[in-house]
């Protein structure tokens, strides 16, 4: 087991890194490790709505920068940039994706598929009310953020810096990715991005509210 202190050290080490050392690249093995922690992340109903688009094409990063005010320092200097895309209509109950997923990934027997479909439909229609495209997209994005957090924490645990990037125009970024043919005809949308690399400057002081301020026990 890893000690609590080692885990907390990683949480203190992780910070929103603004500029990376452009000379230092993350090794392929290390970056696969980071992606693997995204892959193993949990998602609602286990449907893994994400796709990890690793953007190493500097021309595409530059194009995205025109609509991404939050990554001016990160995109040009990061070793790796990941855009987490999420599925849209594929996530609806009864879609070809969910049906295939239950059979081919989860290996569910037919009676489990039928039961799961009933629950999933109820969840979409009344529990979480996900019929509106925006509500559905936001729900998928919430899953993406779990993978995002796990990847950043895992990176920190092996001494790799990161920055989550939400400072972009959703419309603008989706347009650029669609023009590049990366959204599969609107089947995917951009949830959030993250840059990874090695810091070039010392990190700033970490400020947080106290545990007492943000916790209520009942
Ligand atoms: C979802 C999300 C999106 C963020 N987007 C940006 C961004 O676009 N650009 C940026 O420089 N920082 C971004 N941040 C970093 C936050 O500002 C930062 O995490 C916060 O101020 C706490 O600082 P720390 O991460 O250094 O502890 C984002 C953080 C999160 C969680």
Please provide a written account of the structure.
This protein is α+β, with helices and mostly antiparallel strands and 218 residues long. 46% of the residues lie in helices and 13% in strands. A four-stranded antiparallel sheet has the order 1-2-4-3, sandwiched between helices. The radius of gyration is 19 Å and the shape is globular. It starts with a helix and ends with a helix. The model has no long low-confidence stretch (mean pLDDT 98). Flavin mononucleotide is lined by residues 15-16, 18, 70-71, 163-167, 192, 206.
Question: How would you describe this structure in keywords?
Answer:
single chain, 218 residues, alpha+beta, 4-stranded antiparallel beta sheet, 9 helices, 46% helix, 13% strand, binds flavin mononucleotide
């Amino acid at each position: 087991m890893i000690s609590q202190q080692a885990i907390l050290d990683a949480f203190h080490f992780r910070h929103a890194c603004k500029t990376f050392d452009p000379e230092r690249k993350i090794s392929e093995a290390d970056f696969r490790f980071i992606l693997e922690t995204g892959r193993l992340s949990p998602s609602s109903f286990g449907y893994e709505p994400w796709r990890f688009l690793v953007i190493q094409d500097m021309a595409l990063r530059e194009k995205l920068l025109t609509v991404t005010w939050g990554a001016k320092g990160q995109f040009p200097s990061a070793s790796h940039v990941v855009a987490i895309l999420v599925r849209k209509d594929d996530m609806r109950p009864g879609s070809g994706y969910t049906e295939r997923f239950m059979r081919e990934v989860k290996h569910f027997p037919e009676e489990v598929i039928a039961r799961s479909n009933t629950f999933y439909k109820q969840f979409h229609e009344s529990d979480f009310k996900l019929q509106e495209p925006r509500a559905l997209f936001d729900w998928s994005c919430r899953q993406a953020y779990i993978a995002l957090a796990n990847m950043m924490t895992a990176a920190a645990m092996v001494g790799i810096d990161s920055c989550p990037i939400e400072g972009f125009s959703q419309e603008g970024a989706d347009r650029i990715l669609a023009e590049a043919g990366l959204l599969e005809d609107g089947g995917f949308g951009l949830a959030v991005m993250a840059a990874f690399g090695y810091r070039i400057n010392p990190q700033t002081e970490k400020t947080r509210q106290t545990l007492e301020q943000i916790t209520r026990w009942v």
